[in-house]
Amino acid sequence: MEKRVTFSTTAIGLLFAAPMLLLIFVFFYWPSAQALYWAFTLEQPWGGGNRWVGFSNFRQLLEDPIYWQSVTRSFVFGISSTAISMGMALILALLTDRELAGHRLYRSVFIWPYAIAAPALGLAFRFILAPEAGLLSVINRVWPDLWNPALDGKDAMIAVIIAFSWKYIGYNFIFFLSALQGIPRALIEAAAIDGAGPMRRIRDIQLPLLTPTLFFLLIINITESFQDSFGIVDVMTQGGPARATELMVYKIYFDGFKGLDYSGAAAQSILLMLLVILLTIFQFRFIERRVHYK
Amino acid sequence: MASISLRNVKKTYGKNAVVHGLDLDIESGEFIVILGPSGCGKSTLLRMIVGLEEISEGEILIDGTVVNRLEPRQRACAMVFQNYALYPHMTVAENIGYALKVAGVSRSERDRRVREVARALAIEAFLDRKPSALSGGQRQRVAMGRAMIREPRVFLFDEPLSNLDAKLRIAMRAEIRRLHRKLGTTSVFVTHDQNEAMTLADRIVVMNGGKVEQVGTPAEIYHRPATRFVAGFLGSPAMNLMEGEIEPDGTFVQDATRRLRLSQQAGHAFPGGRAVLGVRAEAARLVAPGRPDALPAIVDFIEELGASRIVHVDFDGLSFAVATSDNPALIPGDRVGIEIDPRDIHLYDSATGERLEPVTARQTVHP
Fold it and tell me: Which residues in chain A have Cβ-Cβ distances shorter than 8 Å to B73?
């Protein structure tokens, strides 16, 4: 029999939970509530005297083509970076899974990029992708002006997508690799005896058994691309050139702190929050049903 | 159907040798059981035959062709795994038909053959189920169906019954035997369970420490164990073994009070040699203590088996088992004598473990 410690009163329990509850309250519920309040009022740039305006902040946003452009860009950014980082991670994990020598090393090394703060990462990639002196400047020497993220919006978008994908490849890799290693070896061997070659085994056995992980990572990556992209965009492009990399999260910051439109920014963060909540709910509802094996 | 030949097959992991130069010929249609304790290299051997494990040295031939460099799928072997290894995301029908699907067999042909195999194994009712909805015995049948459908040249079984409960294990054992009689496919079956080995095999290969100890029919292995290891490994209870010296007059001396007369030949053949003497529990007889020629012993405990009982006696610290079908009124601590017919004695070289043959030449082997 397992002995359990039980608290005589709920008060002691609450006392233990209090520090964490306090942190969550100060850093999450309070700002969220504040944002919610601002989203329904018109806040003056220098504070003092705000006015209740109901849904008009939201109405204004949803009618604004520039806002919709940032939504589209966020999805382009999210889908491409998720596809790149998950695709690369899956390939790396499949290769690693076949030859396991040194996989412990890979595990720790590949997680490092995830630990790098987004601004530091952005700075590194700014140098790597700099058109005049970076690693990619070779391209410009062959085809002048082919690559210039400072002027060409498409190049800028590609640059932030590459930087963001790089950060998440390692993270995805860890999940894929451990999921692949969770597949009993005998299943792969049975398929090999049944006549399936390596590619066929990936398609018929490994990928179907990876679906729970695939789905989990898909949601996590898209969610993170909406939120974690801020630092990279801020350091690499500041949303430019000409709003070409202005993602939803960056527009919130820009409208709020540069444009001093607190109410508009607050409404945008509420919308982004709803989107993330929606994705999270979707994930929880869906993932439970897709687990194939115990 | 195919014959299999192993020629000086070795397997090493780094510096660690797990199979040391093994030679074995398996005839077409034979049912071979590889028996040995865990870690003896028997599963590795099986995996080398099917192609899941590289062969470090030597050759494996199937039907006279060297298969060392062939992929598993090119060897036309089918394997049943210990944990069945059914594809969890496929239905039973898809599991069984997967090899055909990979081979590009048409859907209608596939369905027909899956049904046929399912009927033979009495699993038709479960074809649309996933493996997780099946019992252990049903999964076992599906795993066999998956192996059968390809009509392989060789069946390989890697301890397929070890996850089943005792009753089901005996039923499946009979079923495997029946299937083998029907299909006649060459089969190699790996197990550590001697009952499985004795009941299934045409011939048993006893392995220990990466080496073959003995190859023979179940009766041969039981009645003439070729090495001290085989003698101690097979039989329930295992053969009683004791170490001692053979005197020139043909007496085996274990200690001052325990002397056994061997046949005349033994004394001539191995004068002064140290040897291990083996006696099966059912070959020893309990007699009244103090008889000349009987070994004095003290009753330790008695195992009741229903039809018979095993009396464990103590030889000053050495335990010795005697099987008897009568019901002796004995209690632990009683003094008894043990009588052994010289014809029932097996002798092994104490240094090499090899059987000292002439001593037991009179032993008959039941066909």
Answer: 192-197
